[in-house]
Amino acid sequence: MVLVPLNKEMARQVLGRCQELQGEANGWDRRTKSWLCLILFFTACLGFYSNDAHHLQDLQGSLPLSQGKRSELLQKTLLETKEPRMIYPKAQLLKPTRTDVLVTTPWFAPIIWDGTFDSAILDMQFRNTTIGLTVFAIKKYVVFLKLFLETAEKYFMVGHKVIYYVFTDRPADIPHVPLQEGRQVVVLKVRNYTRWQDVCLHRMEMISNFSEQRFLHEVDYLVCLDVDMKFSDHVGVEILSSLFGTLHPGFFAADRQAFTYERRPLSQAYIPRDEGDFYYAGGFFGGSVLEVHRLTKACHQAMMVDKANHIEAVWHDESHLNKYLLYHKPTKVLSPEYLWDERMLRRPPFVRKLRYVAVPKNHQAIRN
């Protein structure tokens, strides 16, 4: 044992206690008093030594590791957290996979076509991601939900966690569809409206409100879709980005003057004829929950201003969506592969896949 010298404060305390004992024990002889003081002195020394020893041990534990120990620890950590192997074809810089279509916007956002992405790489990058899908099955539109969910389970975000948020005024009519592991249907009861245009008007409001109240705490991304559709091919994490829109299949080859933007200056959705990048479809958009909340809140507020001014944009929420995406550029754009109507449009050869297609229906009967 190595005895550590007392510091001045401790020595003063020991001396003071010895004097107190001498005053309190007048009946004791001198030898007894001396032994008591000696015992007190050695007790203080042992306590100080013990405290200091612990301090030295703590200090030793906080000292930096030697180079050899550090390398050994790092190697052990890397072995324990080994990433799975990723096998895929190497990209060829001088051999682009698509030369027949535009694959990048002027603001460097990728345009997603078949052949422009590798699902294996993307699935690994998004392996811990939860995707929320919003769909409105209000009034008669609930009849489309069964086919929508069945095809989604076959093609939409296969292998990933998904929450289907079904907005409906008819919870009892929601069909039971078997789901893959890690996927669920959440029914959100909402009111119906007399006109289908009013459903469009309030759809942005409902997505905005639930994004703030719920979606922000449950999912990482939101995909907002129309229900009167079905999936017919792979739709995966290649679509995910901070903010994405989908090219409308009826206007992807048109000039901006031909776009059916809102052209009346009184409307908040107004876009002049010399402005515009693309015409985006209202039936397929999304992004991070925060960005979708910003988009839907801005569109709803703009629609409320229009309502106060007794004007209704030509294509309702789709018109306001196009105005928003013109001045808040999407970080990813989906090609018409992701939204198509086979009955109304002839499929060109450069549209290699039809991933999400319209279901045949009588619009007049469904909307009334």
Terminal residue distance: 95 Å
SSE-based structural type: alpha/beta
What is the H/E string?
Answer: HHHEHEHEEHEEEEHHEEH
Widest sheet: strand ordering: 1-9-7-8-5-2-3-4
Please report which band the strand proportion falls in: under 5%, 5-15%, 15-25%, 25-35%, 35-45% or over 45%.
5-15%
* Count of helical stretches: 9
Shape: globular
Explained architecture:
With 368 residues, the protein is α/β, with parallel strands linked by helices. Helix content is 39%, strand content 14%. The chain is built from nine helices and ten strands. The strands form two sheets. The chain has an eight-stranded mixed β-sheet. Strands 6-10 form a two-stranded antiparallel ribbon. It is globular and about 100 Å long. Mean pLDDT is 86; it is low at 1-6 and 48-63.
Characterize this entry briefly:
With 368 residues, the protein is of the alpha/beta class.
What is the secondary structure topology, with strand pairs?
Elements: H1 8-24, H2 30-62, H3 67-80, E1 111-112, H4 119-125, E2 130-136, H5 145-155, E3 161-168, E4 183-189, H6 196-218, E5 221-225, E6 229-231, E7 243-247, E8 280-288, H7 289-308, H8 316-327, E9 332-334, E10 356-358, H9 363-367
Parallel strand pairs: 1-9, 2-3, 2-5, 3-4, 7-9
Antiparallel strand pairs: 5-8, 6-10, 7-8
Helix pairs in contact: 1-2, 6-7, 7-8
Features:
368 residues; alpha/beta; eight-stranded mixed sheet; two-stranded antiparallel ribbon; 39% helix; 14% strand
